[in-house]
Amino acid sequence: MIKTAVVILNYNGEKLLRQFLPSAIEHTHGAELIVADNGSTDQSISILEKEFPSVRIILLEKNFGFCGGYNRALAQVDADAYVLLNSDVEVTANWLLPMLRLLETDSTVAAIQPKILSYQDKTKFEYAGAAGGFIDALGYPFCRGRIFNHIETDDGQYNDQRDIFWASGACLMIRANIYKKFGGLDEDLFAHMEEIDLCWKIHRSSDKVCYCGSSTVYHLGAGTLGYKQPRKTYYNFRNGLTLIFKHLDTWELFLKLPVRFMLDWVAAFIFLAKGQPGNMIAVLRAHYRFLRHLNKNLRKRRLLRSEYPHYSRKTIRPGLVIVDYYFKQKKTFVQ
User: Fold this and answer.
1) What is the per-residue pLDDT across 255-280, written as a single tens digit (0 to 9) for each?
2) 210 lies in some domain
3) Count of C-beta atoms within a 10 Å radius of residue 10
């Protein structure tokens, strides 16, 4: 059996701990359950000590963000496989075993995500991950079960097991040696899309990322940062540009980066037209920060490409999801 640690990163989440940690304790068998506290200032630690004494606590001195918090916490964990589990996820009976079996039976599988359904409506897929992540030709991420704001009902259509491009950070199982080989999560991303970056690195090696539809969890979503908040908009747009800058081949970058910039400006004006000036400003800030840190990301790009010059395009959709969704009215992954 693979030695496994389930690690929940917490920051001022006392309400979420009481709501979701009991399911993890009840249904996590054969794995160490850990809560890594990212410098909380609420009553999280006292609640953990008094109400959940079986859970191991890792204390971090301040909030290092999602990426930095996990990197520092996992450096203190002895395991063959990690499960990065959001603090707002309810797990189900037997959720771990199917993913562990997949790791044990296929040595080329580096990372896995389960089926992620909505905690608020358990018949539907959840926004952040759904039934496995993909990207299109411009690097825009989307999921089986959720394309933009169209969310499918779970009718068993994604009860399969298959290769995907990225696995959701809401519930991500990854081999410890793979996590360490790629230096963990890129802390400059701070939060959002860091799992896509890590999975893209995996595709540069001979390993693969998989979806396991026989394992199910329920994700509340936006438990720390709301989906429509300007801060989240900022991270998504800045990190989206950072990802394609780090990973696309040179010819792709020259062709696609200007298009991404143009489409981001279109999105900014749409935010303004919808009466969301905060989100419009967030897009402009994202572009400024991306350009300001261009040299730093150029060094990362060169280092990454020197060690892993190629990446598998097998799970990249060749078309543009924006065109299919808005102009061809294709709302589901199957379409």
Assistant:
1) 999 999 999 999 999 999 999 999 99
2) yes
3) 27
Per-residue pLDDT, 206: 83
Q: How far are the Cα atoms of 183, 187, 194 from residue 79, in angstroms, in the given order?
A: 16, 22, 21
Amino acid present at 272: L
The rounded distance, in Å, linking the Cα atoms of 219 and 206 is 30
Query: Are 233 and 288 spatial neighbours (Cβ–Cβ below 8 Å)?
Result: no
Minimum mean pLDDT range among 21-35, 61-75, 104-118, 210-224: 210-224
Question: Are 209 and 256 part of one and the same domain?
Answer: no
Read off the pLDDT of each residue in 236-255 and give the average, rounded to a whole number. 95
Q: Does residue 198 fall inside a structural domain?
A: yes
Could you tell me if 92 and 178 lie in one domain?
yes
- Total-model pTM: 0.94
| Residue 243 pLDDT | 96
Are 15 and 162 in a shared domain?
A: yes
DSSP 145: T
CA 217, 222, 228, 233 dihedral sign is: negative
Q: Is residue 327 part of a domain?
A: no
Assess whether pLDDT exceeds 70 at residue 223: no
What distance in Å separates the CA atoms of residue 17 and residue 63, rounded to the nearest whole number? 17
Backbone phi, psi, residue 316, to 5°: -100, 130
Looking at the 3D structure of the chain, how many domains does it have? 2
DSSP string for 209-275: EEEEEEEEEEE---SSS-TT-HHHHHHHHHHHHHHHHHHS-HHHHHHHHHHHHHHHHHHHHHHHHTT
User: Domain residues for 126?
Assistant: 4-219
Is residue 1 very low, low, confident or very high in pLDDT (cuts 50, 70, 90)? Answer: confident
- Coil, helix or strand for 65? helix
